[in-house]
Amino acid sequence: MKTLKKRLQNSLSNFYLLQGEDYYLYDRAFSMIKNRANIQLEDFNLSKFDDENFSMQAVIQSAEAIPMASDYKIILVKNISKITKSDENLLLDYLKNPSPSSIIVIFDFFNKFDFIKSLVEFVDCKRFDRKTSSIFLVNEFAKRGKQISQEALDTLLDYCNGYLTRAVNEIDKLAYFDLSNSLITKNQVQILVNKDEEFAVFELTEALGQKNADKALKILNDLIKEQGLLGLITNHFRRLFFIAISDLDDKSLANLLGVKEYAISKQKTQIKNFSKLQLKKIFSLLEDIDFNIKSGAMLQENALYYLVLSILYI
């Protein structure tokens, strides 16, 4: 974000590609670009495309239209999940001679536009590192006349799985919960902030790896009614298994497994808790449980308790 801010002070590009996993940073970057462009009459000078209305031809036609009562118009393309070779060729042709009065901004959460990364202004929207996120959140609380203890800050980032997208949405709730005290405590975070499901599954896996039955069962009790829980657990252990048996680097593993590099680096810290043989057995167990649920031999809630108790003794 700091790099983008400096670049915008010097010049404005006609094309920005945003990639990463923290959606708050997408919105923040877009706001900076739009403010710098000083867009007037947004109804005429701001066009938006997503999976429902996307066509590359329409995007380019919009970019080639003249802005109305404004120096620039912006074309925002958000999280397209599929593009064709024809789409790629149309965009590459456009980039040879882009309209000087249009700014195309692509939110590319699914990394479908890697082929133009070296040709346009790239903005990295991956999760901030822990230190940068902490500084940002401390400043946001200070704007509201609040301080947050280090324990509370660490817990907030853990519960939000490092996503500023989630953490930002919790700021006002925490800041105005107790107006009589300027300090936000760990206990307040634990009471007011719901754990991100991925983080909760990470916690559950950590407890299972450490053979901490009480903690594992407590976490499961808190999660048991969540939709798609078995799928999250299965995906988590599937990644652990592939990380354990693979010599690939984090980026290659992330591409292979369809996740972000952050998820791979975070899960690598759990490998020490399981042997390759244990992970293979757990992976087979998950396949058996999935079959039993789909065939009606087990209820999902019973299957989850059976899974957790079985892993504790593998």
Notes on the structure:
The chain has 314 residues and is an alpha/beta fold. It is built from 16 helices and 7 strands. It has helices at 2-10, 23-37, 42-45, 56-64, 85-96, 130-143, 150-159, 164-175, 186-192, 197-209, 213-223, 229-245, 250-257, 261-267, 276-294, 300-312; strands at residues 15-19, 46-49, 73-78, 102-107, 121-124, 147-148, 183-184. The strands form 2 sheets. The chain has a 5-stranded parallel β-sheet, sandwiched between helices. Helix 5 links the parallel strand 3 (73-78) and strand 4. Helix 6 runs parallel beside helix 8 (164-175), helix 7 (150-159) runs parallel beside helix 9 (186-192) and helix 13 packs across helix 14. The radius of gyration is 23 Å and the shape is globular. The two termini are 46 Å apart. 29% of the residues are buried. The model has no long low-confidence stretch (mean pLDDT 92).
